[in-house]
Amino acid sequence: MSLISLGLFAQSSKMQLSGNVYLIEDGQKVPADYAVVILSGTGLYSTTDASGKYNFSNLDAGKYDISIQMVGYANVDTTIVLNRSASYDFALKEVTFRLKEVSVVAERSKAGDATASTISRQAIDHAQTSSLKDIMSLLPGADLTNPNLTSSQTLSLRTANATAMNSLGTSIIVDGAPVSNNANMEGFTSSMTGVSTSVSGSATNSGVDVRGISTDNIESVEVIRGIPSVQYGDLTSGAVIINSKAGVEPLTVRIKTNPKIFQAYASKGFKISEKAGDIHFSGDYAYSNAKTTEAYAYYQRFNFKTMWSKRFNNLNTSTSLDLKFGKDTRNKNPDDLSSSTAYGGTNIGYRFNTNGTWNINKGWIKSLRYDLSNSFMYKESFKEQDCLNAVSIYSTNMTDGTTVSNRVGQHIYASDGSEITSFGADQSAYATYMPYYYFSHYDFYSKEINTYAKVVLNLYKSWGKMSDKVLIGADFKSDGNKGRGLVFPEGTPPYRSSNTESGYRERPLYDIPFVNQLGLFAENTFKHNILNRDFNLSAGLRFDLINSHTALAPRINASYEIIPDVLALRGGYGITAKAPTSAYLYPNPVYCDRTLYNTLNATNEVDQVVLAKTYIFDPSNPDLEIALNRKAEIGFDLKIADRYTLAVTYYDELMKNGYSMGMDLASIQLLPYQTYTATGEYDSDGNPILELSRDTQKFFTYYMPLNTSYEHNYGLEWELNLGRFDAIRTSFFLNGAWMHTMNTSTGYTFDINSNLGSSVNSHVAVYDPEMHQYHYEKALTTLRTTHNIPSIGFVVTLTSQLSFYTKSWTVYNNDEAPQWYISNDDGQMYAFPSSDSANYSDFVYMIDQRATNRFIAEKHKPTLVFNLNVSKEIRDFLTASFYVNNVFNSRPLDPSEATKGSYTELNNPMYFGFELKIKI
After folding, report:
1. What is the Cβ-side half-sphere exposure of residue 610, based on CA atoms within 13 angstroms?
2. Distance (Å, whole) CA 750 – CA 768
């Protein structure tokens, strides 16, 4: 970045900055049409006309950061001191590997801004990425992995143990509007088992499946890991901001291939006319097969995108339409004759997005920015299998407290004359038992609708060495699902192997309300030069209203130069908030089907009777809070010899009320448990007359949305950029991180052990909150050594990643004996008796036998892996790239410390790929 003084004396209080932007083509200057010229920090930006001219008027005296951008060309970033109206020209060079400086790493943000990394198109090209997940490997502390599209991919930030809550709180923002997974309701078993069942794409209550986002039409990616601006809402971990290609671009064709993935991509951008603006088209296809020996399992993706850019006087707009198709397929394995399992899913939809900036530039008011987006995704998934050992109760009854039998509509009586059966609104409801074996096929239909709107007013004022920017805005987000949900043929429900009293029912998703979010925010960014040292302070407040729930999120970032242009200290503090998803706010009702009588296996048909009573529970949690994450960090930026830079950041992030599906006191129900026996007599309809044989109680448990997920992430990140050494044509960039993550549950831990072989007479053991604290720790550093020869367009990067160690262990909080128990007599909670109590022996069965090796920590030894990336431009239209991961195929075996005789294979296997890019 250079500093250019454009005048030393003021001629008027308001000034003008104008000039020309040129493109360097074949050594000649060509006017840049529709290049973007941004006055960073002010909210003002201009686009050049056909002659390459840009113009800013009504400017105050002061220092301005200028950025000039155009698709396919290297950005120009500089700073000017404006004291009078002036003109300045800029020249953009095409992004090729023939430049002396090539950008193949993630570049860090400026001091005073949120801690972030920017990844350029050139870095994406050289890394030969297949998905957004691959791009994240350029970040500090990220593990090097092999590309894979056959399973769902979500993004997590600053954690040594990726969790669903961390990925859910990582916002993916494409062209100004977030991509949402909030309306995903596919996990229809979460209330029964606590785990969402998903057979295609991203699972419910986790982050966006980024496999569907093509990396080939991305111009740049910014990853905010620190404290984001208050204009970014509905996130906790951070934000991944994607800027798509727009404007004029020659026809570009890419073909990528590796042992598991084939990709093809084409794009073209051209000017429609001077008045009609520019339009850009792109499309890509990807096919991925996890194993060549498993041709029956694969993933396909197709994306088409068009973006129209138009200038209306002082209004600059971009409008895009994305068409998306994704398909997961897992056909039956011809060698698997036991279950004949097959599953898959198809996603097809669109995303419409438009945004614009109106340059007002009157007094303090500089610009107004708007973003509008609407997306629709139709998802159809299925699963089928042969169900073995599947004996369990099945009922179609959907009325609470009623009892039905396998004899539809017939009344069955007890020997005292009282009726056992009772019917709800559906007289055709029945109950039966599933056989030991049956074939199950179910479908899940989803229609996710997401709408987003945002408006931001930028105010700015400069007074020489001091400037003040105010950002005021609001956003609105709505997520809902209009699909049919779970559908299965009557009599053949999805297989379940646990919680056999909990039954499946269909539930239309279109009956579930939308989740609406309203956010209001304001932020002030103050910059001043104090004692010839830059001081930056950005402070803001965000207010969110989410389905009657509210959250306040203050955020602040600051930096100060200790030694001008040499050493700067920076820090930040903030609260981020993530809205609960539809599945957390509106979980599926829970059905308990309790068997009263079962003689279905009787020899005589007249005696084959099943009776089941249904209890229905609403697992929703009216006290569910908005999940909040406290983020804090401090660091320094050091420049040595005016060329080497070192950035070190310590961060600490704490979430105390993350979302989870768990058990609480309200979800442990003590219900009547009655059984009947036959008297040998029959009524006039031929139904057996029964006799009550047992009348007691038994617990039934289910899962509900809670705020019991506790996550603490802290660590140290470093980035050392030594730049390029011209004598050897080589640059060196080192980054890495030490990370520590602790996960636990702040809720009670419940355990039910059978007493005398029966769960009927069993109490529920209750352990302390945070009984288990799971710790994960890792330290690694990555050195990227890049050698380039500009004259022949050749770049080679050797990436060396040293993993110092990875470690995991568990801290136990009084896990050997319960603190309380829920009595099977009255459902109330009591203190667990001490070992010297007279009746202690009656409770011994509740105490689990704990493994003696549970305190042993697992620590993997250091490993070193080398990846090689090579890119070569052939003339002006062809670029060939090649990569090899784990060049030496280093895959050491590390013995387990906790489990003797068990080994873990470290590092990923050797992997390679090839890419060909053609520009016409």
Report:
1. 20
2. 9
User: What's the CATH code of the domain at 192?
Assistant: 2.40.170.20
Task: Report if pTM > 0.85.
Answer: yes
- Which stretch of DSSP H or E encloses residue 478? strand 466-481
32 lies in which domain range? 3-94
Amino acid at residue number 199 = V
Cα distances from 272 to residues 51, 247, 275, in angstroms, run: 16, 10, 8
Q: Amino acid letter at 831?
A: A
State residue 111's pLDDT score: 52
> In sequence order, which residues have a C-beta less than 8 Å from that of residue 849 and are 6 or more positions away?
none
- Pair 733, 823 in one domain: yes
pLDDT tens digits, one per residue of 490-506: 999 998 866 678 888 99
The bridge status of strand 238-244 relative to strand 170-174 is parallel
Asked if 467 and 573 sit in the same domain, the reply is: yes
Distance of CA 897 to the CA centre of its chain: 33
Which residue's structure tokens are 């029912």? 505
- Give pLDDT, residue 533: 92
Whole-angstrom distance, CA of residue 805 vs CA of residue 158:
17
In this prediction, residue 2 carries a pLDDT of 40
Q: Is the domain of 79 the same as that of 160?
A: no
Please say if the pLDDT value at position 25 is more than 90.
no
- Which position has the higher pLDDT, 851 or 677? 677
pLDDT for position 13: 65
Phi and psi for 728 in degrees, rounded to 5? -115, 5
CATH code, 73: 2.60.40.10
Q: How far apart are CA 851 and CA 439, in angstroms?
A: 39
The span from the first CA to the last CA of the chain, in angstroms, equals 33
Q: What is the rounded CA–CA span in Å between residue 423 and residue 404?
A: 7
Summarize pLDDT for 719-760 with one digit per residue, the tens: 999 999 999 999 999 999 999 999 999 999 999 888 887 888
- Residue (of 160, 138, 146) closest to 908 by Cα position: 146
pLDDT at 1: 38
